[in-house]
Design goal:
The complex is a heterodimer of chains A (363) and B (273).
Chain A: H1 2-5, H2 11-35, H3 37-62, H4 71-84, E1 85-86, E2 91-92, H5 95-114, H6 122-142, E3 163-164, E4 167-168, E5 173-175, E6 178-180, H7 182-205, H8 208-218, H9 220-225, H10 230-256, H11 266-279, H12 284-313, H13 320-338, H14 347-354, H15 358-362
Helix pairs in contact in A: 2-3, 2-7, 3-7, 3-10, 3-11, 3-12, 4-5, 4-6, 4-10, 5-10, 8-10, 11-12, 12-13
Chain B: E1 14-25, E2 28-39, E3 43-47, H1 54-61, E4 69-74, E5 77-78, H2 84-90, E6 92-94, H3 107-114, H4 123-128, H5 131-151, H6 166-178, E7 184-188, H7 196-211, E8 215-219, H8 223-229, E9 232-237, E10 240-246, H9 247-252, H10 254-261, H11 263-272
Parallel strand pairs in B: 3-8, 3-9, 6-7, 7-8
Antiparallel strand pairs in B: 1-2, 1-4, 4-5, 9-10
Helix pairs in contact in B: 3-5, 3-6, 5-6, 10-11
Classes of the chains: A mainly alpha (363), B alpha/beta (273).
């Protein structure tokens, strides 16, 4: 596995491996489309959750700040896009203008959340961030009066899809005999952004900034004594994580064409956090695996639970939704027992959990 | 910032001066009107019985606590109201009495984090990996290796800090502090828990750091070490300064003997002499 990515020790194998993975990713949407276009959409949503999980990983995994309201930034990004590219205000800005605006606004909200919580840690920080997430959602729900900004619980409809010149991401085009449907176009766009986001994450982790975050996570007092401006570094982590969420939100808006506050409930924050924890806090690859697993699992269940029960019992006994929560809870319990540092733990996290009492050492 | 006239007068040879430092925790006067001056290039000892206020003085100096009153003047400018990271930026690096390494990071990473305050790469440098950032990163790593060699834990560079033997952890903490390019290195009981051999080589390290141009402020309970390595010593007892002077003079001071051994012993010793 490792050898596949190590371009230094075994360049030939590594490049061939990367090429195979790359081609597989490029061919994937057509294979999925053959099964059903729904699966391309599901994959796109899964990639959005990878964005979210990677953003949250900066806050939780790198800097060690527990954030239970992360979905708020996704909401901010989604609403910025929806309001600037829909008939609601009659604005129709192009996506490449809105996405950076959405990232910037989410970034600002990240700093807004970060500033008052700088002195809080652990449980207390979690409670405040949880509250923040709910505040944003409630605002979105109620900002329809006296001036109608968000259109309240009805949400915003008829949101523009991405357009590049005359190329509309909602239409299907045939090129070289292949049918490029809307979701497939989004898939390629998401894949490109994903690549950029992964590189940014890996580079951030292995940098002066990444080390400062690690220092804060390990021992804040010592970090400060070493000259690290913990206030700025924490705000930076919140802001960076938030802007990733903002970008993901904007794309979500464009892909769905409709958003409402209901998409941004607390459960979504918890799901994203579960992706980070399940995959392995602080490890970019682990977080990606966690996000993909938790995004696909419910969809796979949705399509398998009913036929399996029909075949076994002749009728449906348990709803897929119920099975999903059951399995999810069971998986988390198993994780905590057998792989407490996540499926693919970061080197540091693994060490922390290897010996009992080690966590107390750094606090 | 207060007016320059309000600053205590210090000559150019003084690196750090404390004037009228007071700090109270509830009913305990941890520091009371403490005055001292550390000259450039000296090893300055800070001793006193347990609870005398040594670590409190460290914490007030390095910005972890704010003094109730009093001023520190460091390299010609006051340290009033500075946060710990700003104090480190001005050139005071410290170690901790109960070692505070980044336990789950390697020795090398610990020292590299110490370089943070003297390097600049930001988010965009990290993302773009431009030549300046790459060069800086290489310099950070190289300097960190040098410092590990300097304090004598070079062979353990890739071991986790918490797996290092106790003495090496103390040395690693010194290397991490030196990575911030301090003018003043403040060590809080670096010899605590060390055996005689380790203390002997620590003494060599301290002398080398000093001769390489860094002034040292040393809290230590190992009197043999303090008396052999320190140029001058400040003695605290119940938060008050009871003596300041050369190691030899302080050792003879009845107030110091009384503080350490009890009043009667001091009188008896005097009688015997």
């Amino acid at each position: 596995m490792r050898a596949l990515f190590d371009t230094k020790s075994n360049p030939a194998l590594a490049w061939v491996g990367l090429a195979v993975i790359g081609l597989a990713l490029l061919a994937l949407p057509f294979a999925l489309a053959a099964v059903g276009t729904a699966w391309v959409r599901i994959t796109n949503l899964a990639i959005l959750f990878v964005f979210l999980a990677l953003g949250l990983n900066i806050v939780v995994g790198f800097a060690g700040l527990l954030d239970l309201g992360y979905i708020a930034f996704y909401a901010v990004g989604a609403y910025v896009y929806a309001l600037l590219a829909s008939p609601h205000f009659g604005l129709h800005l192009p996506f490449w203008v809105i996405l950076p605006i959405g990232a910037a606004v989410a970034c600002l909200f990240g700093a807004l959340l970060g500033a008052p919580t700088l002195k809080l840690r652990g449980d207390y920080l979690a409670i405040v961030t949880l509250g923040f997430g709910e505040i944003i959602r409630i605002f979105l729900n109620n900002l329809s009066q006296p001036v109608n900004i968000t259109n309240g619980p009805q949400g915003v409809t008829l949101i523009d899809p991405f357009r590049i010149g005359s190329l509309n991401f909602r239409d299907t085009e045939t090129f070289l005999g292949l049918a490029f449907s809307g979701p497939i176009k989004y898939y390629y766009f998401l894949l490109a952004v994903l690549l950029v986001i992964i590189v940014i994450n890996l580079r951030l982790q292995d940098s002066r900034i990444g080390r400062a975050w690690e220092a804060i996570r390990e021992d804040e007092v010592a970090a400060r004594a070493m000259g690290i401006n913990t206030r700025n570094m924490k705000l930076l982590a919140f802001a960076m994580g938030a802007s990733f969420g903002g970008i993901a939100g904007g794309m979500f808006s464009a892909m769905q064409g409709f958003i409402s506050p209901e998409s941004f409930i607390l459960l979504e924050s918890i799901m994203v956090l579960a992706m980070v924890v399940l995959g392995g806090m602080g490890n970019v690859w682990g977080v990606i695996v966690g996000a993909l697993l938790l995004s696909f699992a419910p969809e796979v269940l949705r399509y398998t639970v009913e036929p399996v029960q029909q075949a076994l019992f002749g009728r449906m006994l348990v709803e897929p939704e119920v099975i999903r929560m059951l399995l999810f809870g069971f998986a988390l319990v198993l994780m905590m027992l057998f792989r407490p540092a996540g499926l693919l733990p970061s080197a540091t996290r693994k060490r922390e959990l290897e010996t009992p009492g080690a966590a107390a050492n750094g606090r | 910032m207060s007016a320059p006239a309000a600053l205590p007068q210090v000559d150019a040879g003084t690196l750090l001066a404390g004037r009228g430092i007071n700090k109270r925790f509830g009913g305990v006067q941890a520091l009371s009107e403490v005055n001292f001056a550390i000259r450039r290039g000296e090893i300055y000892g800070l001793i006193g019985p347990n609870g005398a206020g040594k670590t409190s003085l460290f914490n007030v100096l390095t910005g972890i606590y704010t003094p109730d009153s009093g001023t520190f003047v460091f390299a010609g400018a006051p340290l009033d109201g500075l946060k710990p990271n700003e104090v480190a930026h001005r050139g005071i690096a410290r170690t901790f009495q109960n070692i505070r390494l980044f336990a789950n990071l390697t020795a090398l990473e610990n020292v590299m984090i110490g370089r943070h305050v003297r390097t600049r790469a930001g988010v965009f440098g990290a993302m773009l990996r431009n030549p300046a950032t790459v060069a800086e990163e290489r310099a950070i790593e190289q300097r960190a290796f040098e410092l590990l060699e300097y304090v004598g834990v070079g062979r353990r560079a890739n071991d986790l800090a918490r797996f290092l033997p106790y003495g090496d952890q103390r040395r690693l903490e010194i290397a991490r502090a030196l990575a911030t390019d301090p003018k003043l290195l403040a060590l809080d009981e670096p010899a605590a828990g060390m055996n005689a051999t380790e203390t002997g080589s620590l003494k060599g390290l301290l002398e080398r750091i000093r001769s390489d141009g860094t002034t040292i402020l040393l809290i230590e309970h190992d009197m043999k070490l303090v008396m052999s390595v320190c140029d001058r010593v400040l003695v605290l007892d119940y938060g008050k300064k009871i003596a300041e002077g050369t190691a030899g003079a302080v050792q003879e001071d009845p107030a110091v003997i009384s503080a350490y051994l009890g009043g009667d012993v001091a009188l008896n010793l005097k009688g015997a002499a």
